[in-house]
Design brief:
245 residues, mainly alpha, 73% helix, globular, RiboL-PSP-HEPN domain-containing protein
Length: 245
Amino acid sequence: MSSIKEYMFDIRYEEMRQWICEELNDDEADEDNPDWAELEEEWHNMQASNEEPAEFFDWYKRHAHSDIHQTFHLQISKLKDLLHIALPDFNEETFYKMTYAYAVTLMESFLADTVRSLIITDEKYFLNAINKVDGIKACKFTISQIAKNKDGAKGFAISELSKLMYHNIEKVMAVLKAILGRDMNTDISKVCAITSLRHDIVHRDGKKTDGQLIMVDKEIAEETILHIEEFVNSIAEQIYAPKNA
């Protein structure tokens, strides 16, 4: 890495470190803090939300909510196909942990794209978001700031929602309820357990906080994918059903 790149990396890292320390209210916090990894991921999500390409809104305008659901099923089907590949015994544990984590990633992507699509393509849902979603309704922007944003107030709303940790299922469900303006009858207990385990796999290489090793085999990977599919289908059905009624 060149000296310039090293310098820029150091600056970005220091900005992230200061933000995390402020969130933790601890100036001496470091990577050993149990909440550090999740806040670091939130920081990177925030940075990504500020670097969206100009075509970002256009993509959601061209694709219906059902397209997002179909894309999820296409990708999850590919993942299920991979489970039938014959693997050397010494590769199985790593492969199934990766499969488990990626299944959660696909669910997160579906949820994030669904939230954005609802706000971008339906004025009613956009108004619900800015009036009912806690993370948005408290934001303060000047008319000048909104005018300078190519996508106006919707751009700010999407930027704020891009900071949401989409594996925090309870928060995501609260946001969807607020945007849709109605309750959602979906059991989240299984996917909450799945996302909790995914955190251990991604951030601690499959170990719990007490050091206990988590075993993920083919059966567990298949069950995980099934529960994620059931959850996503339930969300999709409740979003589309009123429009198709």
